[in-house]
Amino acid sequence: MASDIKLAEGPPSYDGPGFQATSFDKIIGLARANSLWPLPFATSCCGIEFMATMAARYDIARFGSERISFSPRQADMLLVAGTIAKKMAPVVKQVYLQMAEPRWVIAIGACASSGGIFDTYSVLQGIDRVIPVDVYVPGCPPRPEQILEAVMQVQELAHNESLRRRNSDEYQKLLASYSIQ
Questions:
Q1: Which residue, 16, 162, 41, is CA-closest to 98?
Q2: What angle do CA 15, 17, 18 make, to 5 degrees?
């Protein structure tokens, strides 16, 4: 009887009777990629689409992200979904800074990505003005499938990221460009 269950593919390794040897980076990447803890920062209609993504039909739990956290200290993937007012920008940045390192950010929908249809003085024209963004999800609002695709892209980033990347000069310059120490 064939099984329909697909297991996460293990990293390249040297196998023998009773042992398996691989690099530490590959094992850590595999663990990170399959246990992302999202923190939803939903302010409008894109938040409803994220709720659908969590529900049974789309089931974000298939990707190891079923533990939705509402505490930034217990999350490593920030999902900004919806319109962000300029007064909320410092709050988004504070939430980002309180998150566990390494952390990833997904901008869900046109409003979080570029301000959407709200080209006004009070709306932030993209969250990438205050925090670095890893994946942008287009749409107004985007479909749950698009949000799942973004989660899979973050999984790919987490799986292939070097353990030393966050200490690199390039990454420190990126954070400095956002006035983040």
A1: 41
A2: 90
CB within 8 Å of 59: residues ≥ 6 apart: none
Residue given tokens 């504070």 in the structure block: 94
Q: Which residue has the tokens 């969250």?
A: 127
Q: Would you say the C-alpha torsion 62, 47, 179, 116 has a positive or negative sign? A: positive
Domain segments of the chain as ranges: 25-177
Q: Mean pLDDT: which of 2-11, 17-26, 123-132 is highest?
A: 123-132
What is the structure's pLDDT at 112? 93
Architecture of the structural domain at 25-177 = 3-Layer(aba) Sandwich (3.40)
Respond yes or no on whether the N-terminal peptide bond of residue 102 is cis (omega within 30° of 0): yes
Are 127 and 121 contacting, i.e. CB atoms less than 8 angstroms apart? no
CB 81 within 8 A of CB 43: yes
pLDDT digits (tens, 9 = 90+) for 119-130: 899 999 999 999
Place of tokens 């790919």: 156
**pTM strictly above 0.85:** yes
Residue 1 has pLDDT above 60, yes or no: no
- Nearest Cα to 134, choosing from 110, 163, 156? 156
**136 strand-pairing partners:** 107
